[in-house]
Amino acid sequence: MSWYTEYKSSLKGYDVEELLDIFFYRPMSFLFVKLIYSTNITPNQISIVSMLFGILTGVMFGFGTYQFFIFGAIALLISNVLDCADGQLARLKKNGTGIGRIIDGFIDYITGLSIYVGIGIGLSIATGNYLYVWGITAIGGFSRVLQNMMFDNYRNMYLANVYDKASDLDKEIEEYTRLKRVIDKTKGRYIEKFLVNIYIKYASVQNKTAKDEKMNVTSEEYKKKNILLLRAWSWIGSTTHLTAVMVACVLNRVDLYLWITFTLGNLLLLTFYIIQKKVLNDLSK
User: Fold this and answer.
1) Does the pLDDT of residue 206 top 70, yes or no?
2) Whole-model pTM?
3) Which is nearest to 150 in space by CA: 274, 281, 285?
4) What structural domains does the chain harbor?
5) What is the rounded average pLDDT of the residues 228-238?
């Protein structure tokens, strides 16, 4: 099997990946995966290291100097590459676990929280204007969460209609429910129990939403009408935001990133939403 074929098989799905992931982060993470492929390193171990670099990013930002913002950007780059690598290794080795998928999602939240807390502390120290800094950090952070959620929502809808992903969620819920029965009978493993319970509730809501949004059209028709729009949505996705944070650190204008997220980011969200509703209405006729 060629490296290109292996690389494609390591992706979640070419048409649902963010372009920055396909052409920048995942090629780097794929090279890392190839280097460690023959070792005993597991996807979960990579996930934990990714989280540690994510937390380190927030710590670096918290010092509030240009030098430490650069250090933070480097840590964030490493964190994101490793965040891509854990899933790629699991898909290539076919050794992913249910807990591993939950851990991966949980770590994304920890990293995101660390970044924004670090930005808030760092800019407060740098400017001395605590009210202004925490205000723009809050609106920037909330805007990013909203934009990421909207992209994820329409990506899940695309997966449900093009790849029948809703049926996969049925299987996942059954799998995690069986896992819950097993770990509930064992002592300890409190973190696993907590994560599994949270994920079952989250997946159940996601599954119901995906089924509710399943349209009475062929997968080819839905894909034709939505694939370019999904690409547009991806530009307010998580990877775009992480990259924008890194660029803002190099320019020493993290505050500008927050304002752009709030203004341009939300303008794009509104524009994409209006277009998306029109496309879906046309498909439903």
Assistant:
1) no
2) 0.84
3) 274
4) 3-284 (1.20.120.1760)
5) 95
